[in-house]
Amino acid sequence: MARSTGFLDTLLTSPSTERYRVGFSLLFLLGIWLTVGSFSQGMPNSMLLMAAAVIGGYMAINIGANDVANNVGPAVGSGALTLGGAIVIAAIFEASGALIAGGEVVSTIKGGIIDPTSLADSQAFVWLMTAALLAGALWLNLATWMGAPVSTTHSIVGGVLGAGIAAGGWGIADWAVMSKIAASWVISPVLGGALAALFLFAIKKTVLYRKDVVPAARTFVPLLVAIMAWAFGTYLMIKGVKKVVKVDFLEASLIGLVAAALAYVLVRTMVNRRAATMENSAVGVSSLFTWPLIFAAALLSFAHGANDVANAIGPLAAINDALASGGVVTAASIPLWVMLVGALGIAVGLMLFGPRLIKTVGSEITELDKTRAFCVALSAALTVILASQLGLPVSSTHIALGGVFGVGFLREYLKSNYATQLHKIMEHHDPEEQERLKPFLDDFRNASVEEMEKLLKQAKKNKQVPLVKSERKRLKKIYREEMVKRSHLMKIAAAWIITVPASAIMAAILFFTLRGLLI
């Protein structure tokens, strides 16, 4: 587990610096207000544009504070990156993804959830988008304060839906699209969790449970990293740079294969060099995943910046176009200043307020080492690819969190399985030898899953004594040890379920408020 020991880590997490971080974020928003005001003088509704720009910056800050944790949290929790290092890498790649691959045109109505052409006038459209943007940002801010990672896409979807219904009635919404979004609440975490657990189980069976893990690592680790390189190469082409370079799935897969071949050669060479000095244990194997995890965090951040910047600047770009043209727009060109608001806002939010959620994802849900974190990152990329090909609407937030829960529940299952085997073997021995059982139980209680297997073999060989009733109860408590914090599971699941309705209600209230103030 990562420890925040560096100066940057302390600066970004200490309660004593929180007021300065809040103050800096307010200065950033003030800078947006003044900058937009300087070039919008003389324009009609310039004050409204300035206010919308500040709200867009506020939304971007909250995206950085909440959503980016999913990209770097596992790398931080496993110790592959320090908190400060992860924040710097994510900030750079998030901003780069937004600026380089964020696209020149965005859909102003995310996913086609409402029909904006049914609105009476452009003024109602501007109020709708402003209310949606502010509601999404407020909900994200609340979720971050509660320590619950939620989907920023769902937040803005709920905002657009609620404000749209307030502006044009229930008929304005496309409920078929909304049903798909609701389905993704289940699809995303289940897919992410299943794939992450599958890869972790495969690593344990092929490498970690072997007597000599180093030879097994020389064979299988390069293959695993090559799979990851293919997944991320393909993921980056179909999601990360899709607005810059148009490729189909086959072309993206071929590019991914080239990346996989290069990764295989490099990792195999590295493992062969380290084999002579590498520790013959799970810790030694885990250390091989450090650099793949760092690259995964960077590439996930780049793709996230390219995709999710639209959640912050899409409505802002729509407002800018609507005010300039005087009409309702369904797709808006993105001026450079709008893109900068989104890119810089995400980076600022991540650096100032991201550490809390990074720690939640990386270490508070379940304990992650580098092997487990590798499985989470790999499942995230593969799930997005699979969902894209099947046309399923999934959330990157839900996928990443599902992966973390998946590896945690697999650990619980494996430990329970070994404990049950031990219990069945031990209960047939002579009760007079109970004193010999005490040191064994002490060792068993503190054992990892891998160590428990060795203790099981030792029990068979040394004919250990059976468990008395009180000792059986103690062992059953170990069966039920929570390697996934249930309180976090319930809190995050509840936040996911209420994200769309909560942001929708807030947006409807804000729409009526804005209309009342501005009419």
Question: How does this structure look, described?
Answer:
The protein is mainly α. The protein folds into 2 domains: 440 residues, no CATH class; 68 residues, no CATH class. It is built from 20 helices and 2 strands. Strands 1-2 form a two-stranded antiparallel sheet. Helix 3 packs antiparallel against helix 12 and helix 12 packs across helix 13. It starts with 6 loop residues before the first helix and ends with a helix. The relative contact order is 0.17. About 1% of the residues have low confidence.
Unreliable spans? 464-468
- How many separate structural domains? 2
Computed structural class: mainly alpha
Largest sheet: 2 strands, antiparallel
> Averaged pLDDT, please?
79
Please give the order of strands in the largest beta sheet.
1-2
- The percentage helix is over 70%
Number of strands: 2
Which of globular, elongated, flat, extended, rod-shaped describes the shape? elongated
Radius of gyration, in Å, reads 26 Å
Could you state the order of secondary-structure elements as H and E?
A: HHHHHEHHHHHHHEHHHHHHHH
Q: Roughly how many Å apart are the termini? A: 55 Å
Number of helices: 20
Fraction in beta strands? under 5%
Summarize the helices and strands and which ones pair or pack.
Blueprint: H1 7-13, H2 18-39, H3 46-66, H4 69-77, H5 83-101, E1 105-107, H6 122-146, H7 152-168, H8 175-208, H9 213-240, H10 249-274, H11 282-286, H12 290-325, E2 331-333, H13 336-353, H14 355-364, H15 370-390, H16 396-426, H17 434-445, H18 449-462, H19 469-479, H20 486-518
